[in-house]
UniProtKB/TrEMBL annotation:
It comes from the Eukaryota. The keyword Lipid metabolism does not apply. GO terms for biological process: DNA strand elongation involved in mitotic DNA replication. Required for correct functioning of the GINS complex, a complex that plays an essential role in the initiation of DNA replication, and progression of DNA replication forks. GINS complex seems to bind preferentially to single-stranded DNA. Keywords: DNA replication, Nucleus. It is found in: Nucleus. It comes from Hyalella azteca. Belongs to the GINS1/PSF1 family. This is DNA replication complex GINS protein PSF1. InterPro entries: GINS_bundle-like_dom_sf, GINS_Psf1. Component of the GINS complex. Its main location: nucleus.
Amino acid sequence: MLGDKAFSLIQELDRSQHGTLPPFNEDAVRQALEEIDSLFQQNVADINHLAEDDALVAGIHLRHAALERNKRCLLAYFLSLLKIRYPEDSPLEWFAQYSSTVARYMRSLGDGQGLDLTVDLKPPKNLYIEVTT
């Protein structure tokens, strides 16, 4: 049926536990995108023959509505996956834990002397650098 794969992605998100994200379902996304492409190609073909047969209008509208629904479902799926979900801690506690983890990592680099990863925030202008030994 039209739009089943895209809607199954939304149902998958709805079934996931609060605060957790299901793994990215590449197969269902690919099938939904293929259905969108197929519906679009069918509409293009029918629009080219619209002057010959006015009965094609209903099919064009139906496929266009299914195409739009698939797009909305995919966008909702992608937006849900892109949200950063904090653990049960508050964002400030999460950031404090993140900062201490980064600081601990920077101290572990450079043969025990540490390496400050926040010093050069701008990339170098030259693509090539000279390395001397």
